[in-house]
Amino acid sequence: MGDNEFVVVANRLPVDKVEDHYEVSPGGLVAALAPVLRAREGCWVGWPGNIGETLDPFEFGGIALLPVSLDQDDFEGFYEGFSNSTLWPLYHDLIVQPEYNQEWWERYVAVNRKFAEAAAEAAAEGATVWVQDYQLQLVPGMLKAIRPDVTIGFFLHIPFPAPALFQQLPWRNEILEGLKGCDLIGFQRHTDEDNFRLLTEEIRTGTFPISIDSGEIAVAPKASTSRLREAVGDPKHLLLGVDRMDYTKGILQRLLALESLLDEGKLEDVAFVQLATPSRERIEHYRTTRREVEEAIGRINGRFGEVGRPIVHYVHRSIPKDQLGTYYSAADIMLVTPFKDGMNLVAKEYVAAHPDGDGALVLSEFAGAAVELDQAYLCNPFDLESVKAAVMDATDPDPARMRHMHDWVMEHDVAAWAQSFLEEL
Ligand code: GDG
């Protein structure tokens, strides 16, 4: 038993190793939880991000960090395998086929046990433990068995599928049993919560749409947005996409919509910036997605670009967060077109960068964010014509819609999200 009154358990610690030292990895979750962790004598249990590295507990930015180490087999079976090749596609409604593999499952169990044991050791008598996301669904049950005195919350950041899909999972009963160790499970949307409740009504659940750290995205100065627009040829319409390179995000679909609009001569004087962070690159479906996206970009530029003036400007690297703000501020139209997405924080970040009502958001109906951002230009990414129509509507936006969404996001930020979950817990 430890002395931490509040314990966060997440797959990753909120730090990244840069050369020989650690830096806090930026992100809403850290921003929201850091004040709670500091105020309540808390700690964060997670993997530091390097395979095979064993670290002693350390403190960073005023937060106590408790590292859980993963070896190569853990990484392949638990992380790349069961988490990201079984659960991720299953919970995103089979956009690609999930793989069911007994060895991955066994690793998932073993790694969840490591996290549960670390949390059990860190938590004080009667502590509150908040477990995050699909990688750790067995932790609540395992932890409750070792430490019945603690209060356990769980938040699922990704969608929860309809029962007919979930029931494909060979280990569906074990996952449900794991989650039943919770005192409260939080979901992004009511539909996720409803799907879960069709399977079991024994557990207390709630819907808590996650949000962004509203202070993090500032409106960029005019000088830097002008520089950016100039760099892409001062187009009439600057379109933007920002995503992890993931098949759920519908990056190819927005490119195909753009290509078709250019083909039909409906959209002119346009530049499209696509920033795509490399993600899960050893998994075949991710490599295929990247290949298809890059092929489409090459084809569009070949067909419609000029020498020195491509249509699509593409970056496949991670960009510093402050630069991201310049892109958000400069873009006339933000394209967020996932086939399925728990929430999608990029949509909220774009809205946060447009307090004056300029700019327009094209948003998939299948993103959790569409529930709150219903004033966006909504589209169905499975229907190319619907994406095209939303883009065309967004070329002549109504500023009242953006202002309305901006006010909503600023008020419902990630701090409010964390507070509402923890109060309910
Ligand atoms: C999962 C769920 C849910 C992106 N590129 C760069 C960069 N980013 C940042 C964005 C944003 C975050 O990454 C992405 O968050 P999303 O919510 O859009 O998507 P997932 O990564 O799939 O997140 C999702 C979320 O969890 C939270 O619950 O909303 O549905 O899938 O903050 O700004 N950040 C930097 N450089 C980049 O190049 N610094």
TrEMBL record:
Endpoints of the signal sequence: none
E.C. numbers: 2.4.1.347
Catalytic activity: ADP-alpha-D-glucose + D-glucose 6-phosphate = alpha,alpha-trehalose 6-phosphate + ADP + H(+); GDP-alpha-D-glucose + D-glucose 6-phosphate = alpha,alpha-trehalose 6-phosphate + GDP + H(+); CDP-alpha-D-glucose + D-glucose 6-phosphate = alpha,alpha-trehalose 6-phosphate + CDP + H(+); TDP-alpha-D-glucose + D-glucose 6-phosphate = 5-methyl-UDP + alpha,alpha-trehalose 6-phosphate + H(+)
SUPFAM superfamilies, A to Z: UDP-Glycosyltransferase/glycogen phosphorylase
InterPro entries attached to this UniProt entry: Glyco_trans_20
Family the entry assigns: Belongs to the glycosyltransferase 20 family.
Name of the molecule in the record: alpha,alpha-trehalose-phosphate synthase (ADP-forming)
Source organism (scientific name): Corynebacterium wankanglinii
